[in-house]
Fold these 4 entries.
Entry 1:
Amino acid sequence: MNQHHESTGPVGEQQITLRGPAELADALPYLMGFHPNDSVVMVALHGGRGRFGGRLRLGIPQAPQEWASVAKQLAECLIKGSERRGERPDAIVIFLCQDPAQGESRSQTMERLRPLAQHLRTACGALEVPVLEALCISGGRYWSYCCPDSRCCPAEGNQMAMPGTSVMAAAAAYAGIQVRGTLREMEARLEPLNTEMAADQQRALDSAGAELVPKILDEAGRKDVARETLGLARRLMKRLREAPMAAPSASDINDDRLISHDEAAAVILGLQDRETRDKAAQWMEGPEADSALRLWRALSRRCVAPYEEHAAAPLTLAGWVSWSTGDEPGARVALGLALRVDPGYTFAQLLHEACNQGLDPETLRRCLRGERNARTGRRPRPDRTRPRTVRPTATRRRKTTSGSNRPEAAVARRRSGQVSPSRRGSRSGR
């Protein structure tokens, strides 16, 4: 077994030392905030003791012929993204998480994924960053692709630790950190409804589209639609906020009942306009954030077939509010789904990369506050209670130039450390 030490800090100031594959495998859900299913997870390590840094997750591509190119892209994204923050990784840890397919044993799953692990190791090595450990986690067992010793890493794998019995679990419990379940469970809260309501919602979207799309394509009509969309969204947020509290298991069901099909359709289509979406993104902190997040989740669930691509806007807004309020796991899941339904959605791309790099969302919050104050004529208030962030960056804030005060530009500036002009493009919501 490879003996090495990794220090991680998801439990505040406390440091935990992880020794070997067993403790690494057990730590993964605490690093991500959920149990990743069908996922490639890569984590950067820094310094002699292997401090955990940036991390990224991607669904395992189904086609093995895609593995080499995907591995190269993932290695470049993690390593070069870390370099932009002045923290080139000293090593990388890789996790391949997938339960056996029907008729497949756990060991067969591990062997099937071995070429992917090798592609990832080769891609990282080509960028002169070694892979310290590569683990496969499948069906409650784990294997090391880096350890050839069958005495400690047998062909049948090693049993995962019982939940809650490891040093990482104890430290997380002490710090009040919880694992929210599986990735599938978190995604289910954002995926399109699959009930009898879906047909009614589709008809409402068809009807709203026939009415609103011609208006959106007209300059004067677009402004009217934007005003009506934001006004309706505010009313829905107020309705959600004033509703009686429900148990977590019933909260999404209750939220769905509080929003009619026609109301959902009107806001979903209105958010396809980029400027309208950007104004909605200003509900990102304080008492508005919780009700806005509930609304964006509910609207994501209403983007039923054949309107799945329309979910990119509410999913991105859900990811943004989650990130802004310190919920990085929730942000990664929502933004990942946004890119799944529309891989070219620029705002989701930039937010997803910035969140994965552990950047500070305050730059974008400041940009959106400025837009809101300019529109309403309010003076900026002193920032006495800065919202909590997970991993603040040391990058210095730079002055913005005229015309760059858009959400995409703010994220791009923080990502690159440079001032970039606004990316206006079309008004398709990108």
Entry 2:
Amino acid sequence: MTEKARDIGDGGQGGTRNEDHRWQDAIEEWRLNWRIGFAAFITIGLSHGAYQALSSLFVLPLQEAFGWSRGQIAFAHYSSLVVAFAAPFVGRAVDRFGARRIMLCGMVLSILTYLGLASMNGALALFYMLSVLAGVIGLSASGLTCSRVVSQSFVRSRGVSLAIARSGLALASAALPTILFAIIARFGWRAGYVTEALLVLIIALPVVWFWIGDSRTSATTARHDSDLPTWLHLLRERRVWLLCLGAGLGYAPATAIMTQLQPLLISKGVEADAAAALVGMAGIASFAGAIVTGSLVDRFWAPGIAFLFACGSAAGTCLLAWHGAVDGPMASLAILLIGLGLGAEIDVVAYMVARYFGIRSFSTIYGMTVFFIAFSSAVGASMLGVAFDRYGNYDAALLVIAASFMAAGGVYLMMGRYPKQRD
């Protein structure tokens, strides 16, 4: 008996496939395009995207060094508002001119921005300005570029391949917090920013230079501007709005928690070193969530998978909002659930953009989702810091975040069946 025929990855190439064929497809595509996938993996993991997972490590050192309150530091996350408005236009540029040149230019500017952060002298306005620059420039090494490259190169195993590539962020979130915490503790917060600049300069930039340049996904299809759907056409698409809303409600809460995770856990009675380790655990869980989700969405309806993981994130957030101190096992379970949901969100949004809308306008539509993600991230991250300043805890904000996770899952369920894809 054959399986029910269904499209996998690229809508034009369906067929009946058993599990062995799916794995063979993935292996073959990675044999041909592993350099592209690995370059995307490294770029996402070591560029600005990882800063959101690491920024909470700078909260207490900056508070001690300059006397800034947590609310003032968290206000820097309103830079996401500028990022939000820039993302669709950066995405349009990627669709027109190709990913490589955008990535390389952005990485050079990111290095300079990190060095600027390391040179701060206590001027809060300078901190805010550099945060804005870091966010906008960081779009060049985000899903706008990396997910487009992977989606264009990996067709039959797109879900798994996106998960593998984008899990670079999850692995970086797992490995870097402990390392960066030790560097900051020994050499100071300035050394932490310099370390981030060196990671981009020594590792991420070279792999893009040598391997993305050899990719068939540069700007071949993107150069045909006349083939790109107009802004008006995209804005009339109901599913574009649903995907954007779901992404904002689902991704932003997890990002907000990560930006305040270490001080949040400390406020719940967790020791500082254990809190740093739990930040790393969130990265491990995010990696697992991305891989599991990537495998599932190649076989099952992606919005349904997204809904299940959103429910888990909501449950984990409610555990963190538990009245009083959170013990070790409960904190670990909460971080595990939130991390799994974050990993799922990382993969499923990029997959649904490709699955519902194709590749031609991938970065433009993804940029529109980033608009909603960044806008709500700014509100959510600031809300956590301000909630602590006002109430002395994060509990009320965490309950709002849990409700946001559930709302995101509900919105995804409204996406409907997959259309016939067009690239």
Entry 3:
Amino acid sequence: MTTAFDPIDLSGTQLANRIAMAPMTRSRAGEGGTATDLVVEYYAQRASAGLIITEGIQPSVVGQGYLGTPGLHSAEQVASWRRVTDAVHAAGGRIFAQLMHAGRIGHPVLLPDGLTPVSASPVKPAGRLYTGAGLEDFTTPRELTGDEVRQTVADFAAAARNAVDAGFDGVELHGANGYLIHQFLAPNTNLRTDEWGGSDEGRIRFAVEVVKAVAAEIGAERTGLRISPGNAYNDIAEPAPEAVYTALVREIEPIGLAYLHVLEAVEIRELTLALRKQFSGTFVVNVLTDGPTGPADHSVIDDGIADIISYGALFIANPDLPARLKAGGPFNTPDPSTFFGGDAKGYVDYPALDTVSS
């Protein structure tokens, strides 16, 4: 029986185990959206993961959605990430960069030169965002023109090339959690009537174009996609997600991606299983029941539901998580005070494991 602790060949990239570190926003970027010494330390500490997937990294200036998030669209940013990938590789790890365009989830005060957040359609999200000067209401995004949609696809491809130049083993495209790719997929945020909207086939087109462009630029074997069908995060409404996501997977299946990463919404396991049958490549699952992925959830590997399981919050307090999972604990409880910001620790003090079974 295959377990979470067995190695796996990820389209030519050898992973030591089937435990991935899920992408988590950290808001710790330095000047100009660069990776800092703290970022280097944070990821190198977690190199025992079979695969690290970084925090969301914006592929363009207008793609930034939160304070202090990093980019991969300048030479300085590429050079800063090279230090991270070198450190992870030196520790024996593998690391993919998650490319995340936030779309309408942002605020003009975070953007330079009079830029404003953009999206599939001019639909204002509910809620507020921390901008450094307190909480601000979200604004109505500007709808991308056809030419701008095509430029955004090109921005993703260019950022993917920058990621490879920075030493990343590949990239994950963030199509989940209510950010730009998800905004094109969801019926409440995509009201377009052109080729990028109006039907399930239209709403998946942007995601498919981004996947194809990135795969053409760096190779499908170095390209992954993350989705979260039915996830209401960031004011997304997908009351019947089955049709659009089965259509999406049908279109990307022939490309030969490194993996498909499904972040489960509550009571969405049936759709997860359907997508698992539909997608022939490596299938990654972030389990969500009534809370974050827990220590026992790696049974999805034993049960054949997933090839790789991704853990989020548990990796923050347990940088050596694979060893702790194999030993059955102990597990530290994540401390929210360490989660965000340049002044926060990239880790918590954690007791060493006395023994770990081989």
Entry 4:
Amino acid sequence: MKSYEKGKLPQIIWGSKSADRVGTELKKADVQKCLLVSGSHVIKHPITQKIIHSLESIGITCDVFDRVLPEPTDSLCIEIAQEIKRNHYDCILGIGGGSPMDAAKAASLIAGIPEDIEDLHEYGKTGARMREQWNRPCMLVLLPTTSGTGAETTASAVISSEKHGMKFSFGNRNTAPDLCIIDPEFTLGMPAMPTAYGGVDALAHTVEILVGTGANAYTNTILLSCLKKIWTWLPIAVQEPENLEAREQLSWAAHNALANGGVPNGHAVAHAIGSLYHVVHGHACMMVLPTVIRHFAETAQEAIGQIAVRIGVPVTGDAQTDAERVANAILSFYKSLGMKPLRETLQEKRCLDDEQTFIEKMIPVVMDDFKSHQWLPPIHTGDYREKVGRVCSAIYEEK
């Protein structure tokens, strides 16, 4: 069997009404003063308000930073880190989707870096200044309010660089939280498109890891279950926003899709599309995923066959034929949820970039993402411009 390793994982509490345990868990950890990091709309959520009141009732001071927007910037994370150091918080509570949780993760680790930071990008996964021994000076607890990003368990944060105009992965092995509490009831009533965007992000995590270089017997057992759940329950959750069973199934799948190793290959390209063209992350991931399947047709034939079975696609045994069928099924799936391929999306945004312009813009941003090193066959070696260009061209030509 193929060997594998698992990174640092937090304590995990999953299940409906598990958010009620925040106060108990912080009290057990002897927390006195915490900072809640989120967006303004999440602060108003009844569950969030209940958490704040429960902390205050047991004597835990809870200050609020509610200015996190989608695609958190490096300057925002540094600002939050300065608040952490200035007020000596002993716990950071990140509540929200991927953006608030990534901001909480990044800021809490930045607060523990004993250097003056001029360019956070230099501390990213492709930078040279990060040190694995650096740790945050406080406890970190994360509560996702969406089912998709899996940011509550990963040891990195996706940050937008204002200076470089791109997204990058920031962090070290200590970026993972101490505790994540996953309450599916947080996602009840979420509108159709945010539900769809989150769900397809989780689908992309699942499929990319299955076909990627980190796939192994341990992860595959869990991920194939995640795939089946997302494929079955995401359309139901989109159509029935108050369906608790659908929310629970998606919550479990989204969490486990990234809690069990591997580096999603297509995310390097999706991050570039998101940062250059301001496409919602989950949508960008789905634009890329059919091309990912076709790219890995030969090297991941067995995994693609297993994916086909889980999503109801007949298997022929021919690698290219099966990959094409799975890619087309994924394309039809995300279209059925209201998303469009790249060119249609760019046209709606009134972007006039032709194919060559798109490729030239994409190449340096894809290359900067550390996930681009994980492709097989490699796209980060030799004539990388031609290799990355082919991938980008295939995405642009998708209909």
